[in-house]
From TrEMBL:
CDD domains: MPP_Mre11_N. This is Nuclease SbcCD subunit D. The keyword Transcription does not apply. SUPFAM superfamilies: Metallo-dependent phosphatases.
Amino acid sequence: MRLLHTSDWHLGRAFHRVNMLGAQAGFIGHLVTTAREREVDAVVVSGDVYDRAVPPLAAVELFDEALHRLADLGVPTVMISGNHDSARRLGVGAGLIDRAGIHLRTEPSAAGTPVVLSDAHGDVAFYGLPYLEPALVKDEFAVEKAGHEAVLSAAMDRVRADLAGRAPGTRSVVLAHAFVTGGQASDSERDITVGGVAAVPAGVFDGVDYVALGHLHGCQTITERVRYSGSPLAYSFSEAGHRKSMWLVDLGGDGSVTAERVDCPVPRPLARIKGTLDGLLADPALARHEDAWVEATLTDAVRPADPMARLTERFPHTLSLVFAPERAPDDPQVSYARRLAGRSDQQIAQDFVAHVRGAGPDEREATVLREAFDAVRADAAVREVSR
């Protein structure tokens, strides 16, 4: 069975101030063309269809168009909700849409109930595990302590139990939206840390033939059977080095997996350039970036006059301007933002405690801070669901 694995469309999202709807429509067209020309048997979409719980009307219309085009192709599609989606909104009408071959899986309670498709070698069971916010689903899965590994493990127990009751030789595909250990994050994914831990081990998914992951925006292979497709478009300059693609996966009759990357259209390349303003404007080696979306980091010791206006004369698609004067590490003018770069909320809070009183928090206090951050995230998740 041939699968086309994609995720993280983020319909309705802009890139800085650039409306990406046209590029997103171009990707949908590419997806449909690929499914037709490469004779795909099923499309799997592993969450974050939309960029927010209440998407703009234009994004909803594009999603509707995508569903109609896939249904018209006659290619079954299995889709789950991600942490950016409203599971309830995305799942509206799922029972009716199911009849058209579009299978929306947004309910955690249905984790062990697969969509079953067949080919010449027999059945393939597709299990949809929507994004599982631990604080909201811990009772559903009867776990004592809310955490990503605990709830995903419980969901996978249901998957394996159902699979064990099926005919021998039944192959299996799991769609999941999670941060799996070994994956490389970018700046455009929303933080899902709970209890100080965001990642879950790949071993959680043992016992199935292929795991189609969503959440991380870079296409990557965790194991030969566990893969992220990544987002089809770049949504931050941290993705400048990404090759945006989908996975074309052939699932053999014996459960063997072979995978090929299919490149996605690039609306405009991304470039990160760094140096003094005069240097950036004069460097002939940067000519290749003159038509790119540009993030420019200026290292001038003193902020130059009209930097954006001057940059856009050479790089008309400059979208981001960062000031990072080159200074010695012990220079008191080194920016607060640079000192915080790459640090988690928990680490920043603990550093603040140490700065205020001269000693960092003890184990009990660190636990209190962590629980406070988890409570805020859980409250935000509840409000998102109820909107």
